[in-house]
Structure formats: structure tokens, C-alpha cells
Amino acid sequence: MQAVSDFFLGEWYFALPLVIMSLVAAALVGWRIMLNLSARTDMDEFLPVFQDTLRKRGVKGAIEMCKEEKGLIPSRLYIAGLEAADQGAAAMRRSMANEAELEITPRLHFLLPPILAIAKIATMVGLFFTVISMINTFDAIGRSAKEGGAKDIGGHSSKIGLALFATALGLFTAIPLVFSHVLFKEWIGKFDIKVKTAGQKLVTLVTNYKKDPKLLDPDPREKEKEREKDRDRDRPPARGRSEGRRE
């Protein structure tokens, strides 16, 4: 702990830029996490409500519903597809593909380049500060050797370990950033698959709606099963037969 405090107090001009980069990097990662959370939509809960809205209120009502959602799939992808619904399924696919490429994908990659840049720069800056500090230390050791100060040589050599704290701090900043960048890229890949699946689902729903709005109703067999369950639940329990016979 003494060495760490000596580095931050005695070598503050090296420590300060690295600390600032660490704080900026932490803020960017936190910002990106909040954006990821706001971009998600629970499609298992959204689709039944959307399907019912499309059946009852039509395409315009579905667009109004999607505008009230915060997730990228309803608020960007579905609106782009629904606005082109009058032109057919092919037009819907083109509109959603353009929206995904020009709007959704850039939003998903927002802040990732600065995060990766800070991760790379922090390592190089830490190594650069270490090299500068060690050059100054070895220069001081050389001057002390010429002057014959053995005690001063020992004092200067202890600063070599102190100089390595700059590299350590740079790695301390870079390693979590690289790990976060990899996780964000993986999340983007999964979200891209989710976007394609949701887009195909929208085309199917709108196509069925144009053919017959009743096709959006739940499966009649599922309705019949629910009715049977309700009848079984309301049916009174059967009375038991008497085991003995009258003689």
C-alpha cells in the first residue's frame, strides 16, 4: 500500500491521465449497459398484445402501439415494416432491412469504438510512462555511480518497481474494457438474430391479417382445450357408490 500511495502522490503526473481514462471508460461501459437494457423487448409478452391490436385496430393501430414502446424492435423495426405494409411483403422486408442496417445496427455499436480505443491506448500510455520513468531512474543511477554515491544508487533502484505501477494501472484499465467489448459484441450478434426473427414474424402476421383478420385469432383447438378445462373445473365431484347392498 505504501508503494501505491507513493506512486499516486509522488508520480501524480503519470497516475492522473490513467485514472481519468479509467473513469471515462467506466462511464462509457455503464452508459452502454443502460442502452442495451433500453433496447430490449420481451417479445413473448409483446407479440400477443401486438397481434390482438393488429386484429382489432388494423395496421394504423399497430403503428401507434409500437410508437409507445421503447425497445428497438417495436419502435424502429416494426414501424418501418408496418409503414410499408400496403406495398406487400417484399416491400416490408426491404424497409426493415434498411432500418436494421442504417438505424438499429449503428445504435447497437454506439460507444463500442471509444471503449476499445481506450482499452488499447491505456496499455500503451501506461507502458510509455513506465519507460519514461525508468529512463529517468537509470539516468539518476548513472550520475550517482559517477559521483560514487552507493547509497543513492540503492535509493534510485527502488524507483524501478514504482515505475511499473504505470503499466499495471494501464492493464487494470484495459483488461475490463476488452472483456466488456467482447460481451457487447456477443450481445449484438444475438440481438441481430432476434431482429431477423421478429421481422419475419411481422411479415407473417401482416400477411395473415390481409388475408383474413380471423387468422390472427388463437388456435380453435387451444380454445376448445380451455373450455374443457373450465367445464372440468366447474363440474361437481361424483358421488361415491355405497359398497354394501341391502339384504
Give a brief description.
The protein has 247 residues and is mostly helical. 84% of the residues lie in helices and 0% in strands. It is rod-shaped.
Q: Spans of 5+ residues with little confidence (pLDDT < 50)?
A: 240-247
Number of helices: 8
Strand content: under 5%
Sheet of most strands: none
Q: Report Rg.
A: 33 Å
Number of domains: 1
Describe what you observe in this structure.
- It is a single chain.
- The protein is mainly α.
- The chain has one domain.
- 84% of the residues lie in helices and 0% in strands.
- It contains eight helices and no strands.
- Helix 1 packs across helix 7 and helix 2 (12-39) runs antiparallel to helix 6 (112-147).
- It is rod-shaped and about 100 Å long.
- The termini are far apart.
- The model is unreliable at 240-247 (pLDDT under 50).
Fold blueprint:
Elements: H1 2-10, H2 12-39, H3 43-67, H4 72-83, H5 89-108, H6 112-147, H7 150-211, H8 220-234
Helix pairs in contact: 1-2, 1-7, 2-6, 2-7, 3-4, 3-7, 4-5, 4-7, 5-7, 6-7
List keywords for this structure.
8 helices, mainly alpha, 247 residues
